[in-house]
Design goal:
The structure is a homodimer. By secondary structure, chain A is of the alpha/beta class. Chain A is built from 11 helices and 7 strands. Chains A, B: Pfam families: Methyltransf_7.
């Protein structure tokens, strides 16, 4: 447990080893709190398919067609999206009159991700024997592997991946900028755990961190992507240009989310890197993170907000203040949210930025 | 929990989803009970290196050099062996005056394996930035991925793996043969959980299962191996030709271990498959599975035997009789072993069969 005061004391290396969505299968687990992410991802399927239509079919298909989900977490969303991608590509091969290649999918996240839960959700491989396929109507048609590591560095061999997919992950920075923790710096965030309402210097420090992280991400992917491949990225965005107004995301987490992509991706980092061209960039109203059965039940909304929040930030919070205080914290979050249920349901809207990139 | 009586009631599909070494980091975990496997594996390094010297160097090295450990479990042994293999190959590239390729390692085991523990033992990737390498004297020089699935089926894309390594895993059959559970069959094993001392029909049923499993294993690997690649297999063996005398292994587990390889591999399954040639086949005195600090301390030997046994068979035993009865069972194993400590330490010797195969 970290000392009180400066709350954000996890070093970069430690952050890489511990950050994850909440594992297991409990009430606040990511598995049981990722319905909103599922809905949001599905609402962008037409944009994903557009990106996939631009991917070059390898001919003759001597090598496997390789898909990688970066920041896959441990729920069934990643399996669903990989299925969508592979089925779409298999249809394209069929339509082009080619034999489909073998497909291979890599599920990547930090080493602290609950890969055990993910692997148990994966249907067994059914591509080999007909008995296997027939015995189970729930099989997968691709080879699967989990890749533990930070996507700000290299994860895959050179020129080995056809399609990169990453949704709602690039807002997790590699570290809290050092100056934000330095009491002598103008960027010092006074021990607070969120950027919402912070000073301009603090915002700039986070923006620089994001730029440097995104540059590392793009540099690594540009080496790993096959010629003719594509990358489909979905990020949390803002509608307001002020990074210290975190809008919907601020209401939910009040924690560090990245600067809007429209200026960063388009004008700065991507162009500076020079490896990629932006095929598409779109801000997209993603909807509410709260998926509830009874919109009039304030207590359900309160619980949904607390669980949603804990499923993505709980591992960090537990590490900082311990399990017991964390229980107390999130039960208070639920209580407070219950008293503001109606306005939360109306105002809590996520905006997503969708980017489709290919090698320049 | 399964009903008493017929103890072995786990179906094939269920066995594939649940079999594993004991995960986590407790007293009976595999992580804390795999020192013997480590010693035994290290005693065979010279044979492994011989196999690696026969692997073709790809030139020019456009593609990654790929190593796969099948049945890796979750301890540090697999990381050690993969390091040995990659370092040996890197030296061979250097000695041949070639730039080394990128290296990629796949750690494969059933989906129930504790991949989380394995991934947390993996050092971070240090091949990209010099700072990363310097900041940590404990980094890895290869891309790593975990592959959940049964090695009796396909796990990897065609022609994608240079070196397969598998130690102490192929004795885990894909299922208990149906006839062994069938009261009307002559092969019925009367509800017993081990083959040691069983009838000839029972032994034949297990032998057939092993042959069919091994055939599936070889068929899959022959598709996945790159031309010029090699496979290094280590199995538990017997010195006696009677499969119902399980010798050292019988003393430890009294459970199903496969028929000796010398007739199976050489004369039957490998030749029938036709894809592979056997470069080397050697029976090897592997040593005792008991690693103790005080060979005169009977209680330590008793605990070591019970922990060693539980680390590899505990997951199955827990599933059959529940955690509480399992605790009781293994504490009785420890007590009985304590009273026979001296003779166990002398007689409990494993014999290993080492096979080195390449494509025909």
């Amino acid at each position: 447990m970290a000392p009180a005061g400066d709350n954000v004391v996890v070093s970069k290396m430690k952050l890489e080893r511990m950050l994850s969505m909440k594992g297991g299968k409990g009430e606040a687990s990511y598995v049981n709190n990722s319905q909103a992410q599922a809905q949001h991802a599905r609402s962008m399927l037409h944009l994903l398919r557009e990106t996939l239509d631009g991917v070059r079919l390898q001919s003759p298909p001597d090598f496997p067609f390789v898909v990688a989900d970066l920041g896959c977490s441990c729920g069934s969303n990643t399996i669903y999206m990989v299925d969508v991608i592979i089925q779409h590509m298999a249809k394209r091969y069929e339509a082009a009159g080619c034999d489909p290649p073998e497909f291979s999918a890599f599920f990547s996240d930090l080493p602290s991700n609950d890969f055990n839960t993910l692997f148990q959700l994966l249907p067994p491989y059914g591509g080999v024997s007909m008995e296997e396929c027939l015995a189970s109507n729930n099989h997968r048609s691709y080879f699967a592997a989990g890749v533990p590591g930070s996507f700000y560095y290299r994860l895959f061999p050179a020129k080995s991946v056809d399609v990169f997919y990453s949704a709602f992950s690039l807002h997790w920075l590699s570290q809290v900028p050092d100056v934000v923790l330095d009491k002598r710096s103008t960027a010092y965030n006074k021990g607070r755990i969120f950027i919402h309402g912070a000073s301009e210097s603090t915002a700039t420090a986070y923006k620089k961190q994001f730029q440097s992280d995104l540059a590392g991400f793009l540099r690594s992917r540009s080496k790993e992507m096959k010629s003719g491949g594509s990358m489909f990225l979905v990020c949390l965005g803002r509608t307001c240009s002020d990074p210290t107004d975190q809008g919907g995301a601020g209401l939910l987490f009040g924690t560090h989310f990245q600067d809007a992509w429209d200026d960063l991706v388009q004008e700065e980092v991507v162009e500076a890197d020079g490896s990629f061209i932006v095929n598409k960039l779109e801000v997209f109203r993603g909807g509410s993170p709260l998926v509830v059965n009874h919109p009039d039940d304030a207590a359900e909304i309160g619980r949904a907000l607390a669980n949603s929040c804990r499923s993505v930030s709980g591992v960090l919070v537990d590490a900082h203040i311990g399990d017991q205080l964390s229980d107390e914290l999130f039960s208070r979050v639920a209580m407070r949210a219950t008293t503001h249920a109606k306005e939360l349901l109306e105002q809590l809207q996520f905006f997503h930025i969708v980017a489709s990139l290919s090698l320049a």
